[in-house]
Design goal:
Blueprint: E1 5-7, H1 14-32, H2 38-58, E2 64-70, E3 73-82, H3 85-90, E4 99-106, H4 115-129, E5 134-139, H5 142-152, E6 157-159, E7 169-175, H6 176-185
Parallel strand pairs: 4-5
Antiparallel strand pairs: 1-2, 2-3, 3-4, 5-7, 6-7
Helix pairs in contact: 1-2, 4-6
Bound molecules: coenzyme A.
The site of coenzyme A has 21 residues, from helix 1, strand 4, helix 4 and helix 5.
């Protein structure tokens, strides 16, 4: 995948990014067996589109997105911003002033090709350049949970059955230098 370009989103990309959010949310909910939870899907879509608005409104200060492009098509996103309410709750306020990385979304047909890792690597590099020391990532999805476990190891916090029977909420809070090392060592 050496033709992937990681770059900042522009206004002309908004519609395509919204489509990507929709496709990834629908596919993820379907694969997790949550396809009937329409309201929750809409809620996540609204949250992500608001995050993107925040990025444009603050010129990347309040919220910062990166996108991955392959052959002129947007195939992935990632963003960083302040700790969300859910993160603060799930970490008993330990990480209320942390930086959270989220919206790591890769189009279904482009998953498992290293694009999520590339986005994470680029975001860590940007945060390190701002002297950020620590980052958190959270997930309630089983598939993403397996990806982060593989990359980041044991979660820092587990909220048992937060999303229902057998569906825990997992949070990883790590020194950025540690995450950077893992990702850099990935090659
Ligand atoms: C989670 C997600 C962002 C990962 O992105 P990706 O581009 O598919 O991941 P990568 O190809 O970079 O793989 C990262 C690592 O996870 C592993 N991995 C990928 N998919 C996996 C899966 N379904 N199960 C277990 N491990 C998996 C890869 O082998 C790789 O391991 P390595 O670094 O040791 O080689 C992507 O699958 C996605 O968009 N999922 C749907 C939305 C979502 O749940 N986002 C996360 C919200 S917290």
């Amino acid at each position: 995948m050496n033709k992937i370009v990681i770059r900042r989103p522009e206004k002309k990309d908004i519609c395509e990014i919204h489509n990507l959010f929709n496709l990834v949310i629908e596919d993820t909910f379907s694969r997790e067996g949550f396809e009937e939870l329409i309201e929750q899907m809409d809620g996540i879509f609204d949250e992500k589109t608001n995050y993107l608005k925040e990025d444009f409104a603050s010129k990347g200060v309040e919220r910062y997105f990166l996108i991955a492009e392959y052959e002129n098509k947007i195939v992935g996103t990632i963003e960083s911003g302040p700790s969300s309410k859910l993160l603060i709750e799930s970490t008993n306020k330990t990480y209320e002033n942390s930086i959270e990385i989220g919206t790591v979304f890769v189009l279904p047909e482009h998953q498992q090709l290293g694009i999520g890792s590339l986005l994470l690597k680029a975001m860590c590099k940007k945060l390190a350049s701002e002297n950020i020391k620590e980052i958190c990532i959270q997930s309630g999805y089983k598939i993403a949970g397996a990806v982060w476990r593989k990359k980041l190891g044991k979660p820092t916090f587990i909220v048992d059955e937060y999303w229902g029977e057998d569906y825990d909420h997992l949070v990883w809070c790590n020194q950025l230098s540690r995450v950077g090392d893992i990702i850099v060592n990935d090659g």
